[in-house]
């Protein structure tokens, strides 16, 4: 293997102002994803004559659904035995342990209940639009994982390998794939792809198409990038595919179903509301 000087030494402090303010880059990026996402949704609502203020309501649903879903996903998908014997730790999210598949399920369920009370915003209609900022939030979150030196990649000798000096592993000086960066850049590209499609089709977009494409692209690429990562929990060592890959397969299949469904008459976009675009506008 080449000299360690040929690789990127990653020794970033996860705290923004260490010793002064215990705020982490991960928390900042996590929050930034929500707030930029709310701004994007507000712009979409204005374009399609929906109340701009509903973007704030979606923010509340999204924050609660993401945190609860991601936490429960980690509990039940990755460490059920541990948390069944330490149930009080389920609510201790500051100790780490969030699963993106659980977060995705939480968002889908929460937006179902959001849409039930808003006939002008059907469930698939809102999912088609929310996936645009969600892809960007995924980019921020994975970059936050990089700043935390977590979810590290497998050992490699590629010239862009990172040495995660702060990683909690037995051999932190081993060059590894920056798997977090791979995912982050992938989700950024998906954000631009979904945004470009929405910009072109807008209100004419068949219901379920962007949502299905999001599932196929995000979880299809998640399946690929898992081959470059270290396992997250011990039981994955004896698995041909790890838990992240097994959970990605039904998500991709569901995405293909929604893409197919978007080609049928059932996917016709809802009627364009004849309302004042300034109604419900934020003051």
From TrEMBL:
GO terms for molecular function: phosphatidylglycerol-prolipoprotein diacylglyceryl transferase activity. Its EC number is 2.5.1.145. Its main location: membrane. It is found in: Cell membrane. Pathway: Protein modification; lipoprotein biosynthesis (diacylglyceryl transfer). Belongs to the Lgt family. GO terms for biological process: lipoprotein biosynthetic process. The gene is lgt. NCBIfam families: lgt. The keyword Lipoprotein applies. Catalyzes the transfer of the diacylglyceryl group from phosphatidylglycerol to the sulfhydryl group of the N-terminal cysteine of a prolipoprotein, the first step in the formation of mature lipoproteins. It is a multi-pass membrane protein. HAMAP family: Lgt. This is Phosphatidylglycerol--prolipoprotein diacylglyceryl transferase. One of its GO terms (cellular component) is plasma membrane. The keyword Repeat does not apply. The chain crosses the membrane at residues 25-46, 58-78, 98-115, 122-143, 179-198, 210-228, 243-260. A 1,2-diacyl-sn-glycero-3-phospho-(1'-sn-glycerol) binds at residue 142.
């Amino acid at each position: 293997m080449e000299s360690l000087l040929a690789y990127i030494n990653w020794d970033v402090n996860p705290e923004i102002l260490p010793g002064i303010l215990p705020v982490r880059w991960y928390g900042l990026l996590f929050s930034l994803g929500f707030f930029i996402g709310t701004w994007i949704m507000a712009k979409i609502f204005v374009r399609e004559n929906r109340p701009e203020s509903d973007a704030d309501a979606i923010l509340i649903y999204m924050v609660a659904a993401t945190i609860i879903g991601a936490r429960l996903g980690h509990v039940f998908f990755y460490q059920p035995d541990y948390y069944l014997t330490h149930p009080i730790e389920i609510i201790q999210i500051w100790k780490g342990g969030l699963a993106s598949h659980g977060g995705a399920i939480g968002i889908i369920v929460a937006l179902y209940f959001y849409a039930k009370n808003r006939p002008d915003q059907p469930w698939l209609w809102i999912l088609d639009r929310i996936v645009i900022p969600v892809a960007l939030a995924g980019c921020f979150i994975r970059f936050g994982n990089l700043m935390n030196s977590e979810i590290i990649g497998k050992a490699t000798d590629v010239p862009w390998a990172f040495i995660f000096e702060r990683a909690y592993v037995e051999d932190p000086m081993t060059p590894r794939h920056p798997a977090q960066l791979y995912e982050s850049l992938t989700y950024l590209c998906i954000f631009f792809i979904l945004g470009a499609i929405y910009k072109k089709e807008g209100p004419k977009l068949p219901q379920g198409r962007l949502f299905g494409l999001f599932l196929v692209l995000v979880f299809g690429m998640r399946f690929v990038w898992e081959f470059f990562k270290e396992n997250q929990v011990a039981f994955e060592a004896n698995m041909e595919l790890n838990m992240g890959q097994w959970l990605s397969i039904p998500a991709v299949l569901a995405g293909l179903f929604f893409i197919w469904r978007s080609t049928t008459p059932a996917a016709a976009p809802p009627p364009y509301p004849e309302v004042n675009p300034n109604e419900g506008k934020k003051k």
